[in-house]
């Protein structure tokens, strides 16, 4: 009987620990949002975060989108050929990129690049007492470190998604025209014809949500980092894993919200 | 004046502070000594509000330091951290002028830079250091920058956490001398925690010894060598035998 209960007990403890972690992160998020609206504000930190999160993520998001758009064109062409529907390539590439792959892959790439960097930076600040130093200098760490990053990521990632969408469609166009023999004018016309504004807007909302998640996960795990190099390493890993899982879960929820009707 | 009444703090079963009572009169330099792991840093963090005490009261100038007063308290306060705790992402002058560039004490950028360079000069650093980043400085220079940052806003209360740890004896002497001079000329109330006896003798007006979570002994620096207290005598002479167990 004990042998049977031990794994159950372990599973129960894991579930409780996971729920406690979710609760702590939710409270951290609420606290962070409150500090966004309460002065003092730190525009220098916000601009720096905007550059770090937005501008410097452009190459990785752009390259991801370019190759994804190209691969998508090849896949849809091959799949469409099975029922003589090769002509759907431009519209499916555009809709697939804008609704799903642009935001999700962009979000995941930003999670890998930015959540890790934020967690490592803030975690190192914590273990070297820089966070304590901020407090002694009359500066609230949530206002100085978390709030600017939350706002910057929430604003920057939709822009990254928009750029990624465009580059992804360009990738599909290049493969479609040069490799699959589509007429350039027809390809562009089909892309324009089937793409709706709501497709683009939903993707941008997803981008905003994913940006918030990335910054939240990086700041939360950095602020709660353990001691020493091992603690910072663990915080960095947890930040990326948590951000990635939350992005995928949020993507499903947002897709239900935007498109279930 | 800083007054600590029955400050208690435990981490699980580890009772670090078991009722610390200590008074530091205004303008006096108090040095708290004690072995590693006796709770000296925890005590400082309790006063600062970085670690909430489980019990007891903290009074500054006769007023209880409640949460709402924390901002006002911190505005009068400067601290030199053990490892410097300089912000890696900012050049030296912005570290020193951190408080002057943000929030309520905000000054024009040029003025803040001027004050920072003046404070750097006060701790013996040349103006050329101002535009370097902390990672480009030696340990001794980082301590001096930390000291310059601690005094930049002319605080009334300054804390020094192990100010000479990791420095060679000559640099430790320089830092001790600087601290003594600065505290005297500013008329600040200072609390230093250390186990470096050369720091104690250079900085202290009064000394308190923290052991097993309470203040075992306190008295003026002149009485440190003559007190019969066995804890103090064992500590200042670095003896393995005595009431303080060597293995803790």
TrEMBL record, chain A:
GO terms for cellular component: ATP-binding cassette (ABC) transporter complex. It holds the Pfam family MlaE. It comes from the Bacteria. Its main location: membrane. GO terms for molecular function: phospholipid transporter activity. The keyword Ion transport does not apply. The chain crosses the membrane at residues 56-77, 150-175, 204-223, 235-254. Keywords: Cell inner membrane, Cell membrane, Membrane, Transmembrane, Transmembrane helix, Transport. It is a multi-pass membrane protein. It is found in: Cell inner membrane; Membrane. Coiled coil: none annotated. Belongs to the MlaE permease family. NCBIfam families: MlaE family lipid ABC transporter permease subunit. PANTHER family: ABC TRANSPORTER PERMEASE PROTEIN-RELATED, PROTEIN TRIGALACTOSYLDIACYLGLYCEROL 1, CHLOROPLASTIC. Could be part of an ABC transporter complex. This is Phospholipid/cholesterol/gamma-HCH transport system permease protein. It comes from Albidovulum inexpectatum. The lineage of its organism: Bacteria, Pseudomonadati, Pseudomonadota, Alphaproteobacteria, Rhodobacterales.
Automatic annotation (TrEMBL), chain B:
GO terms for molecular function: ATP binding; ATP hydrolysis activity. Gene3D superfamilies: P-loop containing nucleotide triphosphate hydrolases (3.40.50.300). SUPFAM superfamilies: P-loop containing nucleoside triphosphate hydrolases (SSF52540). PROSITE patterns: ABC_TRANSPORTER_1 (PS00211), ABC_TRANSPORTER_2 (PS50893). Keywords: ATP-binding, Nucleotide-binding, Transport. Residues 2-237 form the ABC transporter domain. This is Phospholipid/cholesterol/gamma-HCH transport system ATP-binding protein. It comes from Albidovulum inexpectatum.
């Amino acid at each position: 009987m004990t042998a049977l209960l031990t794994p159950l007990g372990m599973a129960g403890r894991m579930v409780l620990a996971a729920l406690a972690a979710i609760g702590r992160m939710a409270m951290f998020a609420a606290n962070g949002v409150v500090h966004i609206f309460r002065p003092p504000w730190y525009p220098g930190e916000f601009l720096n975060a905007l550059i770090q999160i937005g501008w410097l993520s452009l190459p990785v998001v752009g390259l991801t989108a370019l190759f994804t758009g190209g691969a998508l064109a090849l896949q849809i062409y091959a799949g469409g050929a099975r029922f003589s529907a090769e002509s759907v390539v431009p519209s499916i590439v555009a809709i697939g990129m804008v609704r799903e792959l642009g935001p999700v892959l962009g979000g995941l790439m930003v999670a890998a690049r930015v959540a890790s960097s934020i967690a490592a930076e803030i975690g190192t600040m914590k273990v070297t007492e820089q966070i304590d130093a901020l407090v002694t200098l009359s500066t609230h760490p949530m206002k100085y470190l978390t709030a600017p990053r939350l706002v910057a990521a929430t604003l920057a990632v939709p822009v990254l998604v928009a750029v990624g969408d465009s580059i992804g469609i360009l990738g599909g166009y290049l493969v479609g025209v040069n490799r699959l023999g589509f007429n350039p004018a027809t390809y562009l016309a089909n892309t324009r014809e089937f793409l709706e504004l709501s497709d683009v807007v939903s993707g941008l909302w997803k981008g905003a949500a994913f940006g918030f998640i990335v910054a939240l996960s990086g700041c939360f795990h950095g602020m709660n980092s353990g001691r020493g190099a091992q603690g910072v390493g663990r915080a960095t890993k947890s930040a990326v894993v948590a951000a990635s899982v939350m992005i995928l879960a949020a993507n499903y929820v947002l897709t239900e919200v935007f498109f279930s009707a | 004046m800083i007054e600590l009444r029955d400050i208690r703090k435990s981490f699980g079963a580890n009772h670090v502070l078991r009722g610390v009572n200590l008074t530091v009169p205004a303008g006096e330099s108090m040095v708290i000594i004690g072995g590693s792991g006796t709770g000296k840093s925890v005590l400082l963090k309790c006063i600062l509000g970085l670690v909430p005490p489980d019990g007891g009261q903290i009074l500054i100038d006769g007023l209880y330091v409640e949460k709402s007063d924390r901002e006002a308290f911190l505005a009068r306060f400067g601290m030199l951290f053990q490892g410097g705790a300089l912000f890696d992402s900012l050049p030296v002058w912005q570290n020193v002028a951190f408080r002057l560039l943000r929030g309520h004490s905000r000054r024009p950028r040029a003025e803040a830079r001027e004050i920072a360079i003046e404070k750097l000069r006060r701790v013996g650093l040349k103006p050329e250091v101002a535009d370097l980043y902390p990672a480009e400085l030696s340990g001794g220079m980082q301590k001096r920058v930390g000291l310059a940052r601690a005094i930049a806003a002319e605080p009334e209360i300054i804390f020094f956490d192990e100010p000479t740890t990791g420095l060679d004896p000559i640099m430790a002497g320089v830092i001790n001398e600087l601290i003594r001079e600065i505290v005297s000329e500013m008329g600040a109330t200072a609390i230093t925690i250390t186990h470096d006896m050369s720091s104690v003798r250079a900085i202290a007006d009064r000394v308190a010894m923290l052991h097993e979570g309470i203040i075992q002994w306190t008295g003026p620096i002149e009485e440190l060598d003559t007190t019969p207290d066995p804890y103090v005598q064992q500590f200042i002479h670095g003896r393995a035998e005595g009431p303080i167990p060597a293995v803790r």
